[in-house]
Amino acid sequence: MAPDRSNGVKFGWILPNNWGVTRAADLIDLGVRAESLGYDSVWVNHHVLNVGYVGERLGDRPYYDALTTLTWIAARTERLRLGTSVLVLPYLNPLVLAKAVATLDVLSGGRVTLGVGVGTLPAENRALAATTRPGAPTPTNRSP
User: Fold this and answer.
1) CATH number for the domain harbouring residue 70
2) Is there a contact between 61 and 20 (Cβ–Cβ < 8 Å)?
3) pLDDT at 142
């Protein structure tokens, strides 16, 4: 059943890229299905490592990369908006991220909505030497 838009509300769905889905193709199929059902957008989450509460939930099961998942969905859909909820900026090189997101946005016909944040998972921050303090070493600017 298609979502009711008579009141102007848009409907999105969070894909379980962070719940240890065994077959990555199943995530992509969910995105395609969301579009066929009339949803306006799909959203993915982001972490780099399975540590802290993420590791407790997943163990050794996969946590699929946010942008790669959205890229595959973009290739198989036509109008579905593609959102990140959220990318953890201290874990990513800002120039590489900007290029990757801009490329995905162009290839998808302008369908990307980018959500970003600073992260709140201490075990992952420590493992990746990430910090939100201005001028502190991060994975992208630390000295040799």
Assistant:
1) 3.20.20.30
2) yes
3) 47
CA dihedral of residues 68, 32, 18, 62 (deg, nearest 10): -70
Domain residues for 19?
Answer: 12-127
Residue 100, class by beta-carbon neighbours within 10 Å (0-12 exposed, 13-18 middle, 19+ buried)? middle
Mapping DSSP to helix (H, G, I), strand (E, B) and coil, where does residue 43 land? strand
Q: Residue 23: inside a domain, yes or no?
A: yes
Look at residue 143 in the predicted model and tell me its pLDDT: 45
Mean pLDDT value across residues 126-135:
74
Tell me if 134 is assigned to some domain.
Answer: no
The full DSSP string for 81-125 is EEEES-EEGGGS-HHHHHHHHHHHHHHTTS-EE--EE----HHHH
Q: Which residues pair with 83 in a beta bridge?
A: 43, 113
Cα angle 74, 78, 81; round to 5 = 65
| Look-up of token digits 């909505």 | 113
143 lies in a domain? no
Whether 123 contacts 51, CB under 8 Å: yes
Structural domain count of the chain: 1
User: What is the tens place of the pLDDT at every residue in 8-22?
Assistant: 899 999 999 999 999
Assess if residue 17 is contained within a domain: yes
